[in-house]
Specification:
Radius of gyration: 21 Å
Helix content: over 70%
Structural class: mainly alpha
Largest sheet: none
Length: about 230
């Protein structure tokens, strides 16, 4: 089997339009996951034992279940429980990835929040700020700075975990690669999956570069304010 450069570029171009579906479930899972993750973080930092236990158990469960198992549980479980539309596969992928991302994000935000020196909180209290104002103006911006490198890893993880969507029939960039391979009877399997790998690799590079740039800008602002 020899590698055909022309076929590689041909399949690379054919796969690109299906990135739209991939971007949709990554973006939804990230945004909703951040909101849910922040709520879980607040629960973990509260003294209420019920809320703390609830958030800890939630995190432990969804960080332990393999993504493909969770996807099957969500897809087949929800459709059976609520008699949902099994054809809306994108919805079930978004739900699965949101559960996964929120659990990881909550741990990242908790550790990042705890990394902020406690003296910052005391300084906010000394000038009469409320707990919410201290969190919003002082603690959370600094926690976000500490969490930034890990958030890029979360996004790359969502890209890779989302590739499992083909197991329930969603045609994203990975699913399309499988379809192309099947329709060509694996004649161009090396070119197809090399093109797919190149797409994931390029996306990972772009994400790391963007977050690296943001981190650099935030570092400059932080040094100016010191």
């Amino acid at each position: 089997m020899h590698f055909r450069i022309k076929s590689f570029f041909s399949y690379f171009i054919k796969l690109l339009p299906y990135l739209k579906t991939t971007f949709i479930y990554v973006l939804v899972a990230l945004l909703v996951g951040i909101i849910l993750g922040l709520i879980l973080t607040v629960f973990k930092l509260r003294k209420n034992p019920f809320l703390r236990t609830l958030s800890i158990v939630y995190t432990a469960i969804f960080r332990s279940i393999p993504p493909v198992v969770l996807l099957f549980l969500v897809y087949y479980g929800l459709t059976a429980i609520v008699q949902g539309d099994s054809q809306n596969r994108l919805f079930y992928v978004c739900v699965t990835l949101t559960l996964l991302s929120s659990a990881s994000i909550s741990e990242i935000m908790r550790s990042s929040y705890c990394s902020v020196p406690h003296g910052q909180y005391e300084a906010g209290e000394s000038i009469g700020l409320t707990n919410i104002q201290i969190a919003r103006r002082i603690m959370l911006p600094q926690a976000f700075y500490f969490a930034l490198p890990n958030l890029s890893s979360i996004i790359i993880g969502l890209l890779k975990d989302g590739s499992l969507a083909f197991t329930i029939g969603l045609v994203d960039v990975f699913g399309k690669a499988n379809l192309l391979n099947n329709t060509t009877y694996s004649k161009y399997i090396l070119e197809i999956y090399t093109a797919l790998a190149a797409i994931y690799w390029l996306m990972a590079i772009v994400i790391e570069k963007v977050f690296g740039r943001v981190d650099s800008l935030l570092s400059k602002d932080k040094r100016k304010n010191q």
